[in-house]
Specification:
Growth Hormone, Chain: A; 17 helices; globular
């Protein structure tokens, strides 16, 4: 006989490890699709031969993001329909179905197609993928504030979400390099496409596990009356701009993704032409995750003792130190150079790990802050605008990085043969000076990332431990008097 679950005072299943693991599975599902975005620039330059055209197209599709994220977020907030479980879970279920194939659409290997056809394939694939990703990801991020209202529980959920994200990234970083590179170090386009399909299926399975095991404890459903004012998208966006915690957390997240995504293409090429071993790039990046993994079990207790803002600022300072250290380059790439790179990545990742384990809990607090100041929660809009700026960094960051890389000597030398088929970029033709330039660019991108995190967390985000306690107490008092 199955053991009956323990219930809390409100009749819900008590918060526990089941909630944390389920929430981690949701981010794992997101990253099964999202992790391949780091390979997108290599695929479209080295396999599809698009070069700077890819940079332009990547910026253009961010216009879709500008419409897509806030539109879907406000749509979710305005949706007052009663669902059997929860409207956020219902949207996640719908998005997870589309992501099965959505990611693969961005990696259809047709290098012989005309440039215009390639542009259409990329834009259409990206729009389809991004729409389904937003439908799943925006409500998923909003769920954190509904699973529990306790700060320690939210810290646990945020930490476990980081674990889900790390597992998704580890699969991409460690396993994929051995599958998608040919023996001559070039990228295998068809294998990237197959990998995207497989990861879409795995993501769907992860989402279904999360949906089945998620317990909603903070009820927000509202009975809509004729007198109740309609949801106002413009007002909600103004509230976001005035929401200092949301703006600070968003600036920090943009910085984080400039480091993670903006530098991803440059890092991959550096391991191709500087360290001359692209297969070990994932292993090195996995090694740099050790500080993140080590800090995650400590996050809950340390948040209770010190506070989220306080911890994350310390993390940003550590990342700045690591970013500065990455500028140390030994002549002619000795074995010492790789050791220095790994050590500095460890220091940088320690700071990133401290921030990433509490970043989602900070956004949950920012949603509460919006309710504290305006009387309205607007989870979908707050999170979707946060997601939009994150994705702006994820898209514009790599595009700008690729433009800089081309300026530093990483040029697309793919040319059609007699049959009109494009060959991949021959990385062996790139000079040592180009390799050193790209190695320096990686250091610069990581340092800029860390500085942006520090500004957002230390100077803009204003929910320190004392203020957070005051906010939570006043919100609880409002609910008891209603």
């Amino acid at each position: 006989m199955a053991k009956a679950p323990q219930l809390d005072a409100t009749g819900h299943r008590k918060f526990g490890i089941r909630d944390s693991v389920a929430y981690a599975a949701g981010d794992l599902g997101c990253n099964m699709s999202f992790a391949l975005k780091g390979t997108m620039a290599l695929f479209w330059t080295q396999v599809m031969g698009m070069g700077l055209w890819y940079s332009l197209l990547l910026v253009i599709v961010q216009v879709w993001d500008a419409i897509n994220d806030p539109l879907i977020g406000s749509m979710i907030d305005a949706d007052k329909k009663k669902y059997r479980r929860n409207k956020f879970l219902q949207y996640i279920w719908a998005g997870s179905i589309g992501l099965i194939v959505g990611g693969a659409f961005c990696f259809i290997p047709l290098p012989q197609a005309p440039t215009l056809a390639k542009a259409i394939i990329f834009v259409a694939g990206y729009v389809i993928w991004d729409a389904f990703y937003t439908v799943a990801n925006v409500p998923y991020g909003s769920l954190l504030s509904l699973i529990s209202k306790e700060p320690a529980d939210r810290a646990s959920l945020s930490a476990w979400r980081s674990i889900g994200s790390m597992i998704g990234n580890m699969l991409h970083m460690v396993i994929l390099p051995f599958l998608i590179y040919n023996p001559d170090k070039s990228l295998n386009g068809p294998m990237v496409f197959v990998a995207a399909l497989v990861m879409g299926v795995l993501g769907f399975i992860c989402f279904q596990f999360m949906i089945k095991n998620t317990e909603i404890r903070v009820e927000t459903d509202i009975t809509v009356s004729e007198e109740q004012p309609k949801f106002n998208v413009i007002e909600a966006m103004k509230n976001f701009v005035c929401n200092r915690p949301a703006v600070g957390a968003t600036l920090a997240a943009m910085g984080m993704f400039i480091g993670m995504q903006g530098a991803a293409t440059a890092v991959s090429v550096v391991f191709q032409i500087y360290f001359k071993n692209p297969q070990i790039s994932g292993v090195v990046q996995l090694f740099s995750m050790i500080p993140i993994i080590a800090f995650t079990p400590l996050a809950r207790k340390m948040v209770v003792k010190y506070g989220k803002k306080e911890l994350s600022v310390v993390g940003a300072i550590a990342s700045i130190v690591g970013g500065l250290g990455l500028f140390i380059i030994t002549p002619n790439n000795t074995g010492l150079d790789l050791i220095i790179y790994i050590v500095c990545q460890l220091v940088y990742s320690l700071g990133l790990g401290i921030y990433s384990t509490v970043s989602w809990a900070m956004m949950g607090d920012a949603i509460d802050y919006n309710e504290w100041k305006t009387g309205k929660r607007e989870e979908g809009t707050v999170y979707s605008l946060h997601s939009f700026f994150r994705k702006l960094a994820q898209g514009v960051g790599p595009a700008v990085a690729l433009v800089i890389m081309n300026g530093l000597g990483y040029v697309n030398n793919a040319k059609p043969d007699a049959n009109g088929v494009f060959t991949e970029i021959d990385v062996t033709l790139l000079s040592w000076d180009v390799a050193v330039n790209l190695r320096t660019l990686v250091a610069a991108l990581f340092l800029i990332s860390a500085v942006m995190q520090f500004i957002g967390l230390a100077l803009v985000y204003n929910l320190d431990k004392k203020t957070l306690a005051k906010m939570n107490a006043e919100l609880e008092a409002r609910k008891t008097t209603e």
